[in-house]
Amino acid sequence: MIRNQWYAVLDSKEVKKGRLLGVTRLSERMVFWRDQNNKIVCLADRCVHRGAAISAGCLKGEHAMCPFHGFEYDSTGRVKLIPANGRSTPVPENMHVHSFPTAERHGMIYIWWGDDCAELPPVPGFADIDEKFPYVTTVHHWPVHYSRAVENQLDLVHVPFVHADTIGRGFHTLVNGPLQRVSDDGHQIEFWVYNEVDKGQLPKKANQLPPPDSNIQHIHFVFPNIWQNWILPKFRVFVAFVPIDEENTRIYLRTLQRFVTVPILREVVDFANMKFGTKVLNQDRRVVLTQIPKKTALQMDEKLIAGDLPIVTYRRLRDEMQKASTDPI
Q1: Strand, coil or helix: what is 42?
Q2: Which of 39, 77, 231, 297 could make a disulfide contact with 99, Cβ separation 3.0–4.6 Å?
Q3: What is the pLDDT of residue 203?
Q4: What is the distance, to the nearest Å, from the Cα of residue 254 to the centroid of all Cα atoms in its chain?
Q5: pLDDT in tens, 4-26
Q6: Distances from the Cα of 10 to the Cαs of 102, 109, 127, in angstroms?
Q7: CA–CA distance from 25 to each of 6, 32, 116 (Å)?
Q8: Is residue 230 included in any domain, yes or no?
Q9: What is the residue range of 153's domain?
């Protein structure tokens, strides 16, 4: 995983008012809840006293109470009460757990996973998906490192083979380009698909293809873990690849559409879109789970081809970010 990044980790609906939620994310146990202002709180889910899971306890007012000995934690991770010492006894300064900065954007909860900063960078997202863009969500578990799941959605070559009866109809096996664009800060990759039927012609080079155009269908990935298929101005597919640990990923798949607004008809269209999207994702899952190793790296025992350019770019940028996040400040 890449440190010093905002990671999408949960659907906003999963953290409910008045309840603690314990999950594993980025190989760490975390506990979430909402404060009185509905703001998300996230702490390391390990009581400083005896190591019990805070999430197994309950909310007591604005504090999370450990189920073992009643220690109460505020939203900053500080212990505010040790019942055995009495309410009048000051709590030692070293009684605290790590608190993760949090944010919500378009129905996803993000945490800052990294060093404490006086000013954090903006929360990643897609500028053209606003809070009013309706969506439906399904959640999926893949027993692979999240890098494998990400790379599958950057793969131009697999579509006619893995998805022959869905998005790969037509058997467009010849990969032109690929045509891609990387943002100036290296945190975003966009690419355009110009695959076609192989009739014996040579693939076109990127400079022989139309210039990048964000108003036509393309794939857009934003580090560290969100992706969208920009299909039409009013129709998208969004995915958050959420790292659980080194061998497991939780995938939040959303279809977004606003071309059908009549309530009952909209629900029918949303259901059909989600069923189709889930079928496509499960076709991917069947193959990705066979890949070895479960985690990818810049240098691997693979023989890549020209059509793998988006994957190579992703690995290179991820490697640069990983190295930068470990450099001394």
Answers
A1: strand
A2: 77
A3: 96
A4: 12
A5: 999 999 999 999 999 999 999 99
A6: 11, 5, 20
A7: 12, 11, 18
A8: yes
A9: 135-326
Give the tens place of pLDDT for each residue, 278-306.
Answer: 999 999 999 999 999 999 999 999 999 99
At 244, which amino acid appears? Answer: I
Residue with tokens 């190295």: 323
Placement of tokens 């996973």 in the chain: 113
* C-alpha–C-alpha distance, residues 312 and 155, integer Å: 10
Number of domains in the chain: 2
Instruction: Specify the pTM.
Output: 0.94
CB contact at 8 A, 224 and 1: yes
How far is the C-alpha of 307 from the C-alpha of 176, rounded, in Å?
A: 8
Sequential DSSP letters for 286-329: HHHTT-SSSS--SS-S----GGGHHHHHHHHHHHHHHHHHHS--
Tell me, yes or no, whether 105 and 139 share the same domain: no
Q: For residue 329, is pLDDT > 50?
A: no
| Cα 316 → chain centroid | 19
What is the edge-to-edge ordering of all strands in the sheet holding 102-105?
5-11, 108-113, 102-105
d(CA 226, CA 251): 10
